[in-house]
Amino acid sequence: MTAQEAVRRAADRKTIIPAFNIPYLPMLKPVVEAIREEDSMAMIQVARLEWIKFEAKSLGAVAEEYGKYADPARTLLHLDHVPVIDEDGERVDVLPIMADALSAGYQSVMIDASRLPLEDNIRATSQVAALARAKGVAVEAELGAVAGHEGSGVTDYETLFASKQGFTDIDEARRFARESGCDWLSVAAGSIHGAIAAATRRQKKPEARLDIAHIAALYEAVGHMPLVLHGGSGIRQDNLLAAIRHGVAKINVGTDVRQPYEFALEEKPGDISYARHKVYERTRQVLRNVLQVAGSRALLFD
């Protein structure tokens, strides 16, 4: 099953494709093992910031590691956030990165031009969509501003949620879906990214909520294009499950599996096996108890 087919079926059948970020290469093996044990369908993904600010090394290194442990019946390889303007405000030459990902065998890619004005976001996304379409690869894009990371201006979650600061605009989403050429749309409706700076990575994320009515309206506006939720760790479970019923078909999980790895190495420095075990345990918990997708492969393949 292609990534395009998997996410489309997830949307139609009211389930979710979890996408686990790999900021440290040794995390990949236990995440895949957990997906296999729970008989789920999920993505392994890496974002540009994870080879710039963490230890994923490169998109090629992640693809190579994925090749060792991939389970083609249950796992997919996705390139997460490649921003046109990165977390430090620097311009990124996106197209060569996308070309490298396509050559390396990534099954879907994400262009994040959400820091640009709408017209420029559409233009940048359509360029990547044209490149990926030639290879039969699905494209995820982003509209709105998922809060979090450092320097985002978010000081109080309740204020952010009440004001709907950065939430994806419904009219803009309708136009974006029509003109950008993307296949999935990452939207902002209350979730938040985890911290990435070394000094704040250990912090527990605030419990996030989702504006389910806003998500439902977005899903209608984009013609039932599958929606993606970033900042998936720490969202209230009832909100999360409701979002899945209203069009969210892919969810990114980063902090929930990264912190167990980091904390384990602080507890037992240098013990990669112990850290991997902690990642494996937490990934299984997320799949089974949080997202409730144990056995989801059968639902997608029947």
User: Architecture, according to CATH?
Assistant: Alpha-Beta Barrel
Briefly note the CATH topology name. TIM Barrel
**Main beta sheet strand tally, sense and closure:** 8 strands, parallel, barrel
Q: Could you tell me the radius of gyration in angstroms?
A: 18 Å
Query: Count of DSSP helices?
Result: 13
- CATH class identity: Alpha Beta
Tell me, rounded to a whole number, the average pLDDT: 91
Uncertain regions spanning at least 5 consecutive residues: 149-153
**Physical arrangement of strands within the biggest beta sheet:** 1-2-3-4-5-6-7-8
Amino- and carboxy-terminal Cα gap: 12 Å
Percent of residues in helical segments?
40-55%
CATH H-level name... which superfamily? Aldolase class I
Number of strands: 8
The coarse overall form would be: globular
Sheet-strand content, in percent, reads 5-15%
Tally of discrete structural domains:
1
How would you classify the quaternary structure? single chain
What structural class do the secondary elements suggest? Answer: alpha/beta
Return the string of H and E elements: HEHEHHEHEHEHHEHEHEHHH
Can you lay out the helices and strands and say which pair or pack?
Elements: H1 3-12, E1 17-21, H2 28-37, E2 42-46, H3 48-52, H4 59-69, E3 75-83, H5 94-104, E4 108-112, H6 118-133, E5 138-143, H7 157-163, H8 170-179, E6 184-187, H9 212-221, E7 227-229, H10 237-245, E8 248-253, H11 255-267, H12 272-290, H13 296-301
Helix pairs in contact: 2-4, 2-12, 5-6, 8-9, 11-12
